Amino acid sequence: MKIFEFAVPTKVYFGAGEVSKVEEHASSLGKKALLLAAKDTMRQLGFLDKVKGLLEKSGVEVVVSDDVSPNPRDVDIDRQAQLFLDEKCDFTVGLGGGSAMDTAKAVAFLAAQGGGTIRKYLAGGDNAGLENVKDAFPIMVITTTAGTGSEGTPWWVITNTENHEKPGTGNDSTVAKIAIVDPELMLTIPPSVTRGTGIDVLFHAMEAYIANIATPFTDLLAKEAIKLVLENLDTAINEGSNLEARSQMAWANTLAGIAIGEGTSGTVGIHAMGHSIGGQTDAPHGMTMASVALPYMRKTWSADTARYAEVTRMLGFGDESKSEAELAEYSAVALEKTLEKYGVNIKMRDLGVKEEMIEPMTDSVFKTMAGPLSCSLMELNREDIVALYKEAL
Amino acid sequence: MKIFEFAVPTKVYFGAGEVSKVEEHASSLGKKALLLAAKDTMRQLGFLDKVKGLLEKSGVEVVVSDDVSPNPRDVDIDRQAQLFLDEKCDFTVGLGGGSAMDTAKAVAFLAAQGGGTIRKYLAGGDNAGLENVKDAFPIMVITTTAGTGSEGTPWWVITNTENHEKPGTGNDSTVAKIAIVDPELMLTIPPSVTRGTGIDVLFHAMEAYIANIATPFTDLLAKEAIKLVLENLDTAINEGSNLEARSQMAWANTLAGIAIGEGTSGTVGIHAMGHSIGGQTDAPHGMTMASVALPYMRKTWSADTARYAEVTRMLGFGDESKSEAELAEYSAVALEKTLEKYGVNIKMRDLGVKEEMIEPMTDSVFKTMAGPLSCSLMELNREDIVALYKEAL
Description:
Strand order of the largest sheet of chain A: 2-9-6-5-3-4
CATH topology of the largest domain in chain A: Dehydroquinate synthase-like, alpha domain
Order of helices and strands of chain A: EEHEHHEHEHEEEEHHHHHHHHHHH
Distance between the termini of chain A: 38 Å
Oligomer: homodimer
CATH architecture of the largest domain in chain A: Up-down Bundle
CATH class of the largest domain in chain A: Mainly Alpha
Number of strands of chain A: 9
Largest sheet of chain A: 6 strands, parallel
């Protein structure tokens, strides 16, 4: 079993105040940067000016594009990649949550191909396999949320506006060369976002553990991430300025990101189904997982009772008077109770999903998320996915 | 804080039967390999023929040099690097324990410099800083012991026959491109070697935890490695053919190796002092650590009571009626009791060290092991080291 593969040089800086490392390291990536920042918030919070200043202090010229929206669209990437080329930038800097980081990756990749449309490289596109592509320009990411784990993975999730799909794409060259995880940038995240991203971390870690490509290495990271989420998410939601809780959530997020990241484990059917909801509705990523997770667990627990029983234990419901099979079957209930603890009890219809969307969403699962789906411990066919979506509606 | 940096592409394969991966991946490193194997044992156990066969099946031509002795010497590296060049090899394969893996690294490095003597690049040599050197040829390592962690680090430890020093050297290019950790190759390790290498794993993990460059990432790996050693070393020693115990020890070793490996944590004064014993006496690596560790712990525990108290807890002596300072101070006793559990109760004189060797050993600590020494949580000067050696004699 390949325990892990770190395919590219990558440095991760973690800790309060680490954003200052931008000044020290940015110039190693080039002379001119395209700074891609989440819309409005980064400017309002002063993070945009702070990072721009640090980049300039390191002698890097900065072009700012602070118009990254949640669930970035292909057309945005195309435009920003052209800007990168017109301005003759050397590298991208993603400042924000998953959307900004994924944008920085996709723009660095598309610009390296000389621009055009990113759709060509998304699932279903002419070159979805990324055959014979050039390596992306260097990427730096600065995460301001404890969710998505994008700082630890090669993946970028871009919405295809032609077919409303939301595939994850990436190769070795789209791993950030430098990733900065600074919990001080997370102290002002509103509770709803802390909750949604925190739940996303929980799913990354739990899915990495119930993936058929899990290894002892990813298990170690996933278990630690789940433990940290359970210990700290509640405080991070209700006491946003608690630096310790923010730090632990940020670290849990990075661990989970590495667990599902390059050459290690991956997500499973939960993410495959959740992403396809995201493509249709623009619902928050974490909530889309929450809406499909319980049917998924109820359906799949028997595929590996040892691992699902361990999920129940990790979530704090390890009643050892129960048999392993009983504990495994209970994993869906354990997850439901865990989500309810954070006020998350959600059905797909709450996210704006209508019954008629189930067919296209199912198409999307097999067309754009076949990879994660194939990491599930139980093989799921089209009928299974339709049934799970109906149950989750 | 830099959590981690993986500076080179590296793949680690772990698990029973994984040695078969040699056939699948060897050809990605080149057409002709210099197979450097531990003397006698690899041939006797049939591992040499097995690996040679797998290399040839993958289409790789093989030159065999199965004369690697414990604590490899500069003169051996010089000779083997010349053989590599004369035979126009493309990469090295190290088959055995730390000595064979370190030899594979040093030979791949020296050959890339065009041969000559490896002493030039060892501490105190003309180019000990490895300034402007060429990258090493690709390296594959196949570890047959659960100790040294060499498969996870860039370090190679070569004995300098001119000054009897035993420095650790290495750069990003001397991390193995492919590392194979197959516990099935460890089932016949004699108890004494299992004990010595297992103790080495314990020290790598514990030192990584009490290093001043420890991170949450290395802490996670180190704690897991210590837990696995305590759970499995006894069985591995007394029931060598127990594959589960061998697998867990092998995994603990790899985790500890990564923890002290590239860009993560490192070892401390214990390894600095132990290596310098090894240079003088040829004593087994693990035992040299054991002989100096207790004085080191007694001397340094007050430098970070939280971490040393945690060491005591990790070793299973966490009496919570004690204060943190008391637990920290107890860490030396906890380690002593732990070592005794494995029948290890050793003084330097048992390893052949004489009082007159303390001065040259101390010189060697500062000349060749200043790096690990500087990772200690307490700053130790020359007088401190002399005193610790005298206490350990």
